[in-house]
Design goal:
209 residues; mainly alpha; elongated
Length: 209
């Protein structure tokens, strides 16, 4: 009876933790990051061994633009044992902080653990380009499935890789492919403006702007 009672109490505690964790996720998706992070901080004090709380905190910190805190939290994790969706968030935080080697490590782990994760693949390609590894970056991008290679996220990444290499005409071509389908796509408009500027075409760049 005592054992059964203890199990019942433990189950109720976990249910309460799950409900509060779900509440934090809903608040974060609604943009209330401070409230979401406050709930997770309380839960981490109560359940210090619960790694899923770390996962949620890292992702929400990245959404909130707090990349430095996200990376500090991620330091408690083992990269190759971290779920891909969390690894992608940590990789994004590292890129935001210009810690390119760290970003590559996180994205590489995510692609190995979840080869179908497009965000991981694109993040790895961009981080490799940031590191000046143009051939590796293009090779990583080519590993995306054929079914998505004409989609906006992949074309934007391809354009980014060209720009990192100083190849602005191919970058403009990639942006034009996007704008032919999505004339108001903001990242493509911004990227094309920058590329035209780099090509010493100020009138065209101003028109795009």
């Amino acid at each position: 009876l005592v054992a059964a009672f203890c199990l019942l109490i433990a189950g109720a505690a976990l249910a309460d933790m799950g409900a509060r964790q779900d509440e934090a996720a809903l608040l974060a998706r609604a943009g209330d990051y401070p409230a979401a992070l406050a709930i997770l901080a309380d839960l981490r004090d109560e359940y210090p061994e619960e790694v899923s709380l770390l996962y949620d905190e890292i992702v929400i910190l990245v959404w909130a633009g707090e990349s430095e805190r996200a990376l500090a939290t991620a330091d408690a994790l083992v990269i190759d044992k971290t779920p891909s969706w969390v690894a992608v968030a940590a990789g994004t935080a590292a890129r935001n902080q210009q810690r390119i080697d760290t970003a590559i490590a996180w994205y590489d782990s995510a692609t190995r653990n979840d080869p179908a994760n497009l965000d991981a693949r694109l993040g790895l390609a961009m981080a490799l380009a940031d590191a000046g590894l143009a051939a590796d970056a293009r090779a990583a991008l080519k590993l995306t499935p054929p079914s998505v290679q004409e989609t906006t996220p992949v074309l934007l990444t391809s354009a980014y890789l060209f720009q990192r290499e100083g190849m602005f005409i191919p970058a403009v071509n990639e942006y034009d492919r996007i704008l032919a389908v999505e004339p108001n796509q903001p990242e493509a408009l911004q990227g094309k403006t920058y590329a035209l500027q780099a090509l010493m075409l100020p009138a065209e760049a101003l028109e795009m702007a």
